[in-house]
Amino acid sequence: MTNFVFGKTKDGENVRAWRLANSRGAHAVILDYGCIVQALSVPNAHGGFTDVVLGYDTVAEYEDNDGYFGAVIGRIANRIGKSEFTLNGKTYRLAQNDGKNHLHGGVKGFDKFVWEARQEGNALVFTRFSPDGEENYPGNLRVSISYELTEENELRITYDADTDADTVINLTNHSYFNLDGGGTVLNHYLQIFADEFTENDEGCLPTGRFLKTAGTPFDFSEPKPVGRDIEADDIQLKNGHGYDHNFVLSDKVELKKAAVLYSPKTGISMTTFTMLPGMQLYSANWLTPRKGKLGSLIDRRYAICLETQMFPNALAIPHFPNVVLKKDEHYHSVTIYRFDTTV
């Protein structure tokens, strides 16, 4: 594992990039700014390698552009309705940065900090202290996130956290995957191991209802092209301008298979495993044209996000899985993205 200077933030903080590699030639570049997966190069079926995540070449581009490219998201990933929640009888009001809702941790979420970084064996470990009141969340929270690139071509992400007071937490990674290395992902094949998804309102906020995937554009029980049904006459697709929905994962084992994404062009398949009960499928509906790494073009629907998570708006919906982390409890979850090739 090596590291090098990637640049400086606008506030003058140094940002370093860490290069992880395995003996099979795969490698990842992870920034200590936002724990961003800046590059992830894996073998393709043609004897070469493909960088399967979208991103930028400079710190300034990560600071200036929307989209949370490759970053860790916290304290709460996804949306909190009306930008407030009540915990232990006290109401906490948060930043409204998604219409009237709170999105991805607020104005300065975990994606906008430089984290402490160290190597532990084959793992790269990032840590930071999130003080009580940061973005108006309660409790002093200590967070640890580790990345490991295994010999099986798996990017393994482990999340751990502890708090000195009851708080809320829902951590994820917001990588934009494109198994072709660029261009549209509508020709990628996707399978999701979920029989239900959470209904969204017109602001992409879950209502609390569970909808069956069978017989709908959200049925990915068998692999199908992402673009096959994305323009269907369906109110849920219209609400999200495409896919921007939480899938309720069917398997109840601790580390469950969530999805398989496959590119016929490169022969790369990516299998997602997680300990969490949900996964947000986002088809990059809101991306606008911009320059990416090495002058590449990033545009609408040029990527798929598979964000493993607790359910969005869970603080307002009692029957959703609990996102409260109590004092002296320990938060732990693992997500794995495994890459294979098919000729």
Describe the structure.
- The chain has 343 residues and is mostly beta strands.
- The protein has one domain (2-341): Beta-galactosidase, Chain A, domain 5 (Distorted Sandwich), CATH 2.70.98.
- The chain has 2 helices and 29 strands.
- The strands form 8 sheets. A 9-stranded antiparallel β-sheet has the order 11-12-13-14-29-23-22-17-20, with no helix packed on it. Strands 1-2-3-4-5 form a 5-stranded antiparallel β-sheet, with no helix packed on it.
- The two termini are 30 Å apart.
Q: What are the SSEs and their pairings?
A:
Layout (H helix, E strand, L loop, with lengths): L1 E7 L5 E8 L5 E5 L5 E7 L5 E3 L7 H6 L7 E2 L5 E2 L3 E4 L2 E4 L8 E2 L12 E5 L2 E8 L10 E9 L4 E10 L3 E2 L3 E2 L15 E4 L1 E7 L5 E7 L11 E2 L9 H6 L3 E6 L6 E7 L5 E7 L3 E5 L7 E2 L5 E2 L6 E5 L14 E2 L4 E12 L2
Antiparallel strand pairs: 1-2, 2-3, 3-4, 4-5, 6-16, 7-10, 8-9, 11-12, 12-13, 13-14, 14-29, 15-28, 17-20, 17-22, 18-19, 18-21, 21-24, 22-23, 23-29, 24-27, 25-26
Briefly characterize the structure.
The protein has 343 residues and is mainly β. The protein contains two helices and 29 strands. The protein has a single domain (2-341), classed as Beta-galactosidase, Chain A, domain 5, CATH 2.70.98.
